[in-house]
Amino acid sequence: MALFAVFQTTFLLALLSLRTYESEVLSEPLPLTPESLKVSVNSTCQCLHLQWTVHSLAYHQELKMVFQIQISRFKTSNVIWVENYSTTVKRNQVLHWSWESELPLECAAHFIRMRSMVDDARIPKPGFWSNWSSWEEADAQNMLGHDPLFVFPKDKLVEEGSNVTICYVSRIHQDNISCYLEGVQIYGEQLDRSVSAFELKNVSFIREKGTNVFCKVDQGGVLGGIVLFVSKVLEEPKDFSCETQDLKTLTCTWDPGSDTGLTKQPSQSYTLFESFSGKKTLCKHRNWCDWQVAQDSQETFNFTLLAENYLRKRSVSILFNLTQRVHPMTPYNLLPKNVGATKATMTWKVHSIGNNSTLLCQLELLAEGKVIQQSNVSIKVNGEYLLSELEPDTEYVARVRCAYTNHFWKWSELISQKFNTAEAAPSEAPDVWRNLKLVSGHPTVSLFWKPLSKVHANGKILFYNVIVENLDKPSRFEVLSIPAPASSTELTLDQCSYQIHVTAHNSVGPSPASVIVVSGDPGNEEVEKGRVNGTEDGFSVSWKPQSGDATGYVVEWCDGPQDLPCVLQWKNLGPNTTSTVIRSGAFRPGVRYNFRIYGISTRRMAHLLEKKAGYLEELAPSDNPQVVMSKLTSRSFTLSWKDYSTESQPGFIQGYHVYLKPKAGEQCHPAFEKTVLPEDSVCCKYTIDNPEQKTFVVENLQPESVYEFIVTPYTSVGEGPLDAFTKVTTLDEYSHTLIHIILPMIFCILIVMIICYLKSQWLKEKCYPDSPNPYKSSVLSLIKSKENPHLTIMYVNDCVPDAIEVINKPEGSKIQFLGTRKSPTETEFTKPAYLYLLPTEKNYSGPGPCICFENFTYNQAASDFASCGHFPVTPQAPRHQLGPLTSPENLLKALEQNYMNSLGEIPAGEANLNYVSQLASPTSGDKDSLPTNPPEPALCSEYKMQTAIPLGLASAPPSENSSLSSTTLLGQGEHCR
Amino acid sequence: MLACLCTVLWHLPAVPALNRTGDPGPGPSIQKTYDLTRYLEHQLRSLAGTYLNYLGPPFNEPDFNPPRLGAETLPRATVDLEVWRSLNDRLRLTQNYEAYSHLLCYLRGLNRQAATAELRRSLAHFCTSLQGLLGSIAGVMAALGYPLPQPLPGTEPTWTPGPAHSDFLQKMDDFWLLKELQTWLWRSAKDFNRLKKKMQPPAAAVTLHLEAHGF
């Protein structure tokens, strides 16, 4: 074996000698195999470091060689990388090469080998590869501990947008391992039995504390993880520039962009490097840095700003001349001096730059935020500028900025100062107008004026002076002082003409006077009335030019609706103007505005020229007139709405529509137009095109028919609401005929009644005299002539009562009589029971001569009503009927019997009866009211005209038990002598 | 305001300890210590939520329960119930004191690592409160006549993670620190509640005492 080794060595040496000889002498390339190959792992950068030498080179020989490097993963046959590395090689030189692995090196064993080839131009023939070196293994897994699960790479720092491969190594050889990126499961590729890899593409920054990736064995409690630090990409500084305020210090500024700081990496740092001086400084701030200018008067600077973090460097450079980068400091002490009404002087100071440097300062004057003046002033230290053409009593702002005169780079910051100019007398006369009216018979002028604009007021207006000069009596003046802000006053004048001067006063003095002439005559002259059209812009009012010497025109109007107090407005116009547009924010659609155009004479007196009315926008009427219906007949009726005012409507009333709903099936009258209402009902419409016609007769109607009507006005826009129709029913056709008959009849009756009334005395005398004077009764003559010529008249005064009948009259009792014309049988039951109590029984001296009175007129009535228990007997009644009752026994007997029989029929309250023949009978209602209103004796104490009855007639045969009669009662109650 | 409260609480335990004469005993100190643990418990809930969000998922997930890999040096609050019951007052208080001493030190390290100013402010505030609790426990121990435990030289806990300590493990340690702190606050509340009950004079004795006076 040793012999074999010696032989082999000898052979190789011989061969090498031969090759060397060939290469040196024959200049042929030699295979120089890399030797002493060593591989190390750097986990931080996931790099494999290779180092080797080439021993075969001759001394002092330098050759350019190519090394082909092969890297395999897991096993030598799995080559994942091949790279040719060219370099110049010396003898025994240690060569280095690094390779960064995408897969964390801890997750897989790597194998590396290389071979070489001479690639030098001095060797003309193409070379050939040497033999491969032996495989070198780099296995970082050996460095792991004993944990069951590892995740790699640990705490890696990458930039946003990178692709990162994560892997885990499991020692427990289980499949149920899940990996998560920020709590979201990720899926990868299993590289080995215990190794899986996950590729994260385009990773993004989440938080400074890093992105968490972890793997765990499901339900095993085994967990491993890493934090991946994703840094934002370092940006190149933007807007890098340097400038100086005093030529001593340079201040460089830039926009740093995103902060790339993480807990694993501090924020990027900035370094300023100046190439001419070779100096550099580490900036303390992210976006600016100061640089002290050396005293050696360096004028040109070449700055490089370098930004860097762990992953990247970025730089930006500028080259400039110092004097071209002067940015002066802000001026100071800007003050107004000698401020007048129209002038002011501004003074200010600046910081000096170097020696004898001048600055160009720009002074701007602002009013109400706008620049109105701009001036440039060159100064060294102190600045001063006179501002003129200022407005009195106005607030101004002056501001100043300065720049380096030698080379303009930038304006300094601005310094501002406010100031107010002094007041001046008002520059314009106030705009005055008047309104004339009669108050309690006195001409009264209301003066109005508009506040002066700020431009013309030149200060705060304190009061207005009104001087009233009587033109007819020039010596008389009246001065009124009206404190501001009043804008009107009222003057009571007489019939003279007056010239009124109005001036506005501020603290400095008065304005020019505004003069107006008024006369005591309100001048309600009749002028032309017209209409004016409103547009979106306002009312375009035009008028005829006044022939003569008008010095101007005034258009006057009220801003509000007619029903509100007038806020008088006016507009002054020049003498050559004949039209204008009246604008006001107060104008509203549907409101009538009245405009009056006045011409101003050379005497400054106003004359009314025209009146115009208009609407900004006409609207349809919102209300209908209150219609009064009259003259209703069977065929017509009249409608009237005279109270309807066309002036206060939301548009010019052009007329009226009269709608009439006809009976079903009835056609419209030819004068009407058939129309369909919004609710689809058919209607007849009549159009009245004269707005002043406010009555209308609806004719040709059907009698006894119901019609509905409405009257609605219409404007150019539309008509009023068709909501409340009024119903009307026409009269019966014959009703008025009947009236023609009934009225005369009523008239005739009235005539008769009047005659009767006038002749009532005569009639009374004739028919029913007041006292029962038988001699005056015509009936007497009638009786005398027809029946008993022996009848005489008895005077009441001749009767001497010989007995008093006391009647026990139970309260509320009364006999109900059914009438004298009942049958005798019936009458028996109506006999009064009180007859038992008659005290005349024992004193009865039998029938004696007696004269009774009978009033036939009364009897007739009493026979009907029988209210007094009075039993009337007609002259035709048989005499024998009276007889039996004249005997007390008969009477008692009859009554006893009848009483017993009639108790059940006669109401208890009617059981008593008093007698007496009376003058007048009670009304029939008394009978009905008996149960509750018992008859009072007074009712029965009246007299009647009576007739004397012969005694023989009074003592009728007792066999006749006929009904009771008044005669009987009279015979018992009153015994006449 | 919370800082003022903590300052007051910091000084409170010292008062009864210094004024033992005519004293109401350690009861009020224990009560205040108990109240402080409850307050810190409430404060920690808010702080832990913020800090775990700052660490990111999975540390802020409610069911996250990682193995206690690198947190072995943290004092454990969990203890067998029987062991806990058998602890005497001194040992009980000593364990509390030692635990919070260590936890406070770790917590200050946590504060130094925090990236955001707001988080640093919250952690500093909590550290102040925890310092107050530590002082309160010391006050109770003093009131009961127990000496404070002296730290052994060289065993001062430090917050210097080794180079091999990965950021993920560091986050797990932070997680466990907050979790252990919370468990300790729970345990302390129970400890001081137990002590409080123990220190209360028995009600029957009071009654008898009053009766004796009555007669």
Major β-sheet annotation of chain B: none
Between the first and last Cα atoms of chain A, what is the distance in angstroms? 214 Å
The assembly state of the depicted protein chains is: heterodimer
For the sheet with most strands of chain A, the description reads: 5 strands, mixed
Strand proportion of chain A, as a percent range, falls in 35-45%
Organism (chain A): Delphinapterus leucas (Beluga whale)
Domain Fibronectin type-III (chain A): 330-424, 429-524, 621-733
Subunit structure (chain A): Heterodimer composed of OSMR and IL6ST (type II OSM receptor). Heterodimer with IL31RA to form the IL31 receptor.
Transmembrane segments (chain A): 738-758
What does this structure look like?
In chain A, 13% of the residues lie in helices and 35% in strands. Among the domains of chain A are: 35-142, Immunoglobulin-like, CATH 2.60.40; 147-231, Sandwich (Immunoglobulin-like), CATH 2.60.40.10; 238-324, Sandwich (Immunoglobulin-like); 332-420, Sandwich (Immunoglobulin-like); 432-615, Immunoglobulin-like (Sandwich), CATH 2.60.40; 627-735, Immunoglobulin-like (Sandwich), CATH 2.60.40.10. In chain A, strands 9-16-15-11-12 form a five-stranded mixed β-sheet, with no helix packed on it. In chain A, strands 38-44-43-40-41 form a five-stranded mixed β-sheet, with no helix packed on it. Chain A has a five-stranded antiparallel β-sheet with strand order 48-49-47-51-52, with no helix packed on it. Chain A is mainly beta. The longest helix of chain A is centred in the first third of the chain and has 24 residues, at 2-25. Chain A is built from 13 helices and 52 strands. Chain B is mainly alpha-helical. Chain B has a single domain (26-198), classed as Growth Hormone, Chain: A (Up-down Bundle). Residues 1-6, 12-21 and 204-215 of chain B have low confidence and may be disordered. The interface between A and B is medium-sized, with 24 and 16 residues.
